[in-house]
Design goal:
The structure holds two protein chains of two kinds.
Chain A lengths: L2 H23 L5 E2 L6 E9 L6 E9 L5 E9 L11 E9 L4 E5 L31 E10 L11 E9 L4 E5 L1 E3 L13 E4 L13 E9 L3 E2 L1 H6 L10 E10 L2 E2 L7 E10 L4 E9 L2 E4 L8 E3 L5 E2 L2 H6 L5 E2 L6 H4 L3 E8 L6 E10 L5 E7 L1 E5 H5 L9 E4 L5
Parallel strand pairs in A: 15-26
Antiparallel strand pairs in A: 1-10, 2-7, 2-10, 3-6, 3-8, 4-5, 4-7, 8-9, 11-26, 12-22, 12-25, 13-14, 14-18, 14-23, 16-17, 16-22, 19-20, 19-21, 23-24
Chain B lengths: L2 H22 L9 E2 L6 E9 L5 E9 L5 E9 L2 E3 L2 E6 L4 H4 L6 E2 L3 E9 L4 E5 L34 E10 L12 E9 L9 E6 L1 E3 L12 E4 L8 E3 L6 E3 L2 E9 L3 E5 L2 E13 L2 E2 L10 E9 L4 E8 L3 E4 L19 H4 L3 E8 L13 E11 L4 E7 L1 E5 L4 E4 L4
Parallel strand pairs in B: 20-28
Antiparallel strand pairs in B: 1-13, 2-10, 2-13, 3-9, 3-11, 4-8, 4-10, 5-6, 5-7, 11-12, 14-28, 15-16, 17-24, 17-27, 18-19, 19-23, 19-25, 21-22, 21-24, 25-26
Classes of the chains: A mainly beta, B mainly beta.
Chain lengths: 401, 411
């Protein structure tokens, strides 16, 4: 073989392999609701004994053929006396055998009871003692896959779902958000600090949080077209609004030092006429809000014209619904639907979340439907070239002792 | 420098480059070519419903997430079945004995209607499939950009009511109307039921459209055949964890967590009995020759309960299948449901997990994957007698060597 031919072969081979790896580098890093992961985030868990009377059913499954352990944290973000999130954390551990699904109702937890009758809620291999949450709980559940010693483990074997059931029997379901781990690096010292810095451009422990969240939604207060179409008697003067409630949680959380994450997010809203509006808010620990509440704390009841802060106030007084002058409201946007991009500012960390739609009849009867948000990019790569960057979201779990 | 030394130095330099590239590429585990988390070139709404009698309609949302004018080619598929001896009567496998004249069978349907429209910069659209959109918002009013963009096209209503079916939208080039290699579409579907005779009733369920990602620069000279994964992949994502590394398309396995049929779920605020419907659609579609996807795909189920006990069953899907879980292994209808492996009485636990694998074909041309996609629909019957539904996207696992093809008519 001549030298030129030999070199050409080597460089050709090199080129092919580099191309292959370059393609590999464009495979997407994910915080995903499509596949199983090593950290599961259930962003919206509620147990409300008054008002809407809602309770939550959690489903978790081990998607592997090995035993899987997970360290789970309930974070109560319900407001305290001053309106700030409580940020109370309760943790527990579960064990799942191969491919085992399990579930529990958060108001009851799941005690270990081998005598549970077949076909009842406790039947099955108990995954461990799962505590109940207190009444009024409004927060998130986070489960981190660990090994038998309690060290975080990047197996990517957990999937989950949440069903929220109201006292009327109405239900809404969404998938848990899975943060995938890089199996080679997850659990690196310090093991209790989970760095969300794995991206297509950077080898890290866990996949980085999204740089933007995408939300398609009906604008606040738009009359439900199906009710108008088939049940117009319950939509006099278009008073059968659709509301969207958004729940956001910061990707960074410090369970060791009890430090909640705090992220300021910007909203860019585009209506069907391509007009752009914006708003912003700060998420501390946990935020669940009607979209219109983000920029309009007060409004007026549609029927009585009385001042209000929430729909419940108007519905209780048979005064219609609480209409607000918000950039998310139909009065401002003027079209039936909108597309909102949610972006953390500057060097703030990422957020993840879920949306829930409320479809009202004129009488105040409501049905809800939850769905997962979409995403674009990741916080690490988006901030790597900024002064002070990159942003590395970190979940710090308590050290073993 | 000798020839051998030159080759070795070249190889060494190459290794260094490879090492650098490898370090820069993050490990992402076994991706599939479909997603509900990101915008994509193809968006698939597997379940749409209209029923005027029960006050049911579906609100479809479709958004262009990019700042560029985008064109979309969409296909409604009407999957209503009709009685063999009364072609105007709509039926299902569950009710044909009641609705068809004696001796009639329910013949599955698969009729597509297509339409095109443009979406301007980051523009969202929503419409009721029973009513369509005869005029798009920016049909005559200019958008905000410079130069301003306009909407073209309109959206027809579905062709038959009651309607059960699906919607598939493909991003195409604005000028040529051939499939484009951009990933700018996202969508959702909301099924709302609000019958007039039950004036207090409303029920809503929502899911995210399933996206299939286009691969930049891979569109070939045969634009009416869209290759999802497989040897000539135009759609999918690169999977470095398979041997050989390749672009992959539809998932190998679908995983769904579900309640077993008939399960009584007790919460602090009451009890509901839960039953689930599964909607299965093939990744492959032939809108060109309307052959309803040829031979049916066989779908194998592995079902695990909370005791880690494993059960299995199978069914087949030709072009569309919406079925109660309990009817997968028993006769259609309620008869025999209590004996199904999806019944709480058989399984003994409230929840389970099912793994669905469609059986791939013989790999004649690399496009015999028989891939499937799915949506889970749960019905929760309350103590008061009413019911509420909720939908959930099914998760994905792994990839397969073969691909699927969508065949479309060209403009």
């Amino acid at each position: 073989m001549s030298k030129a031919l030999g070199m050409r072969c080597v460089w050709s081979l090199c080129g092919v392999l580099v191309s292959a790896l370059a393609f590999a580098s464009v495979t997407r890093a994910e915080v995903s609701t499509d596949v199983s992961g090593s950290v599961l985030v259930f962003p919206k868990v509620v147990y409300d004994i008054g008002g809407l009377g809602r309770d939550t059913i959690i489903q978790v499954t081990n998607t592997s053929n090995n035993m899987v352990h997970a360290h789970c944290f309930y974070v109560n973000g319900a407001p305290d006396f001053f309106g700030n999130p409580l940020w109370q954390v309760t943790d527990f551990t579960i064990w799942l055998t191969r491919q085992q699904p399990t579930h529990w109702v958060v108001s009851a937890g799941r005690p270990v009871n081998p005598a549970d009758m077949f076909g009842t809620g406790g039947a099955g291999i108990d995954p461990g003692a799962i505590p109940p949450v207190p009444p009024g709980f409004d927060g998130e559940l986070k489960c981190v896959q660990i090994d038998a010693s309690g060290t975080p483990f990047g197996g990517n074997n957990l999937k989950g779902e949440t069903v929220i059931r109201a006292s009327s029997g109405d239900v809404s379901k969404h998938n848990a958000i899975a943060i995938l781990a890089n199996p080679d690096l997850a659990g690196d010292a310090p093991a209790n600090e989970l760095l969300l810095d794995n991206t297509p451009e950077h080898d890290g422990e866990y996949n980085s949080c999204p740089n933007q969240l995408y939300l398609n939604h009906f604008v606040d207060g738009t009359p439900d077209p199906v009710v108008e179409e088939f049940n117009s008697a319950n939509c006099t003067d278009g008073d059968c609004p659709i509301r969207t409630y958004l729940t956001l949680v910061p990707c960074s959380e410090d369970f060791e030092n009890q430090l909640p994450g705090e992220v300021t997010v910007q909203f860019a809203i585009v209506n069907e006429l391509e007009q752009v509006f914006s708003a912003s808010t700060t998420v501390e620990c946990y935020e669940t809000t009607r979209l219109a509440d983000i920029d309009a704390p007060t409004g007026t009841c549609t029927v009585s014209g009385d001042p209000c802060v929430s729909d419940a106030q108007c519905i209780q007084g048979a005064a219609g619904f609480c209409s607000k002058n918000s950039v998310f409201a139909v009065g401002t946007l003027g079209t039936g639907s909108a597309f909102t991009r949610i972006s953390p500012v500057a060097l703030d960390g990422g957020v993840i979340g879920v949306a829930e739609e409320y479809h009202y009849l004129e009488t105040g009867t409501v049905s809800r439907a939850a769905w997962n948000l979409q995403q674009a990019g990741n916080r690490y790569d988006a901030t790597v070239n900024l002064p002070g960057g990159p942003v590395v979201d970190t979940i710090t779990i308590p050290e073993n002792f | 420098m000798s020839t051998k030394m030159g080759i070795w130095r070249g190889a060494l330099a190459c290794a260094a480059i490879l090492l650098a590239v490898e370090t820069a590429s993050a490990r992402v585990i076994d991706p599939t070519g479909v997603t509900t988390n990101e915008s994509a070139a193809i968006v698939y709404y597997p379940l749409l419903k209209v029923d005027a009698t029960d006050g049911v309609d579906t609100l479809v949302q479709l958004t262009n997430t990019s700042e560029f004018l985008t064109k979309v080619h969409c296909f409604y598929t009407n999957t209503n079945g009709h009685c063999s001896n009364a072609p105007s009567t709509i039926c299902t496998d569950q009710d044909f004995r009641d609705v068809c004249p004696t001796g009639g069978l329910c013949v599955p349907g698969w009729q597509e209607t297509d339409f095109r429209l443009t979406l301007t910069k980051r523009q969202p659209l929503s419409w009721s499939i029973n009513e369509g959109l005869s005029s798009l918002p920016l049909a005559s009013t200019p958008g905000q950009g410079s130069p301003p963009q306009f909407n073209e096209g309109n959206i027809p209503p579905v062709t038959e009511v009651p309607f059960t079916g699906e919607l598939l939208c493909i991003q195409v080039d604005v000028t040529t109307e051939l499939p484009a290699d951009r990933n700018d579409l996202k969508g959702e579907a909301t099924i709302v039921e609000s019958p007039a005779e039950n004036s207090q009733g409303i029920d809503a369920s929502k899911y995210t459209a399933i996206g299939i990602k286009a691969i930049e620069g891979r569109q070939d000279a045969n634009p009416n055949v869209l290759n999802i994964g497989g040897p000539e992949a135009e759609y999918g994502v690169f999977n470095e964890f398979v041997d050989p590394a390749r672009f992959v398309g539809c998932p190998n396995i679908l995983t769904l967590n579900h309640f077993f049929d008939g399960a009584d779920v007790v919460t602090a605020n009451g009890v509901s009995e839960v039953n689930s419907d599964l909607v299965l659609v093939p990744c492959a579609n032939d809108f060109l020759t309307q052959t309803a996807n040829g031979a049916p795909a066989v779908v194998q189920f592995l079902v695990y309960n909370e005791f880690e006990q494993r059960f299995s069953t199978s069914t087949s899907v030709q072009c569309y299948k919406e079925t109660p879980l309990s009817d997968i292994d028993t006769r259609p209808g309620e008869e025999g449901d209590a004996f199904s492996i999806f019944s709480v009485g058989v399984e003994g636990t409230i929840t389970g997990t099912s793994r669905l694998r469609s059986v791939a074909g013989p790999n004649v041309d690399g496009y015999d994957a028989n891939g499937i996609l799915a949506i889970l629909n749960e019905t929760w019957f309350s103590e008061a007698g009413g019911y509420y539904t909720t939908s959930a996207n099914v998760q994905f696992q792994g990839s397969r060597e073969q691909g699927d093809q969508i065949k479309i008519p060209l403009p």
